[in-house]
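This section describes the prediction task in plain terms. A model, or a person checking by hand, is given the sequence of a single protein chain and must write out its three-dimensional structure as a string of tokens. No templates, partner chains or ligands are provided. The sample shown here is typical of the held-out split.
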Amino acid sequence: MRNTAKIILKPGKEAAVKRFHPWIFSGAIEKIEGAPREGDIIEVLSARNEFLAMGHYLPGSIAVKIFSFEAAEVNDHFWKSKLKSAYQFRKGIGLTSGSVANAYRLVFSEGDLLPGLIIDYYNGVAVIQAHSVGMYRLLPVFTEALRDLYGKKLVAVYDKSSETMEKSKLITRNSKLFLKEEKSPDSVVTTQPAGLANGSPDHFIFGSSAPVEILETGHRFSIDFVRGQKTGFFLDQRGNRMFAQFYAKDRKVLNAFCYSGAFSVYALKGGASLVHSIDSSRQAIDWTAQNVKLNDCDESRHHCEVADVKRFLVETQEKYDMIILDPPAFAKTHHVTNNALHAYVHINAEAIKRLNPGGILFTFSCSQPISREMFRSAIQSAAIETGRQVKILHQLSQGPDHPVNICHPEGEYLKGLILEVS
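The expected answer:
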């Protein structure tokens, strides 16, 4: 292995690393030894030249994402061991047995000290999203590790990294996927795992599979991981959907931003008198109808509609006993947090107006830059704007297969509240 580049931090800037925060910001760097390219492994040293950590180098405000706080020989065995540890953690909390669910997040980036890597397991199909060049280069290693881990249970591995890698880092040449390494268009190196052979940047790395059916707490869902959002399904809401099933009995429910209808299925199974599912995507509505039918729900108690949620909430005259509001991220960077907060206030105020007295509101933010406190303040502002009395019944987060490193609070991206509106 070639010599690893090093960064030396400014005096006093080692404190966060010693508290096991997995990011090194560019402003903390005194100097860089060597000439690291994006995705290269780099060592982090204090101003006194003491070893602190190892990570992948990035040219940006976050300059290093740490994958080890100990000096280690980083080879295939190193990465395979980390993937196995992630699996053993899920096994320890009962997610891999298949008796309750056969789909879960296997790797959650910094939560598993594998920053820049997401792997979701769907009943024999592993879907990978690399968020960094360093992790993207390792897809062949992780694919081999998955095959070792699951054996014959693994049907396919699908790389869905094109939507998470910046477009500037991905180029397609001669129907193969490459990574840009320099600004020059001629300076490229292939990182294509074996088996990627058609023109799309998203491919099966191993095997192949049609949309797959999963089981989640007794409910069945068809997952189109190729065309679906993210990796195909929002596994992070598993526990929160169980709350929806509990509260839905005899209620008229609106599932806004319904996507593939998971909350709708849970509400119908919980005895909702009517579930109204809306989404701006025709494909999402078709998936919702498919999943409702797959679970033998009473289709006369379900109505789905293609509509813009924000406009619908403003214009509808319908009143509901329960509303589920799970919008896409309104803020993907800190630069737009103010606009995002205004959007959260507006859409939650409109939802509150549509609730009958005693109604229940499930409201979520998956915007990482929006903190739990900021989101709660936005909901408070929405309640004040409507003049309604609002009580917090539950405060929600992502499921345990999306663990949050206690030294990396930024990993808690999903914030949710269950509210009673008088």
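For orientation: The chain has three domains: 5-68, 76-207, 234-421.
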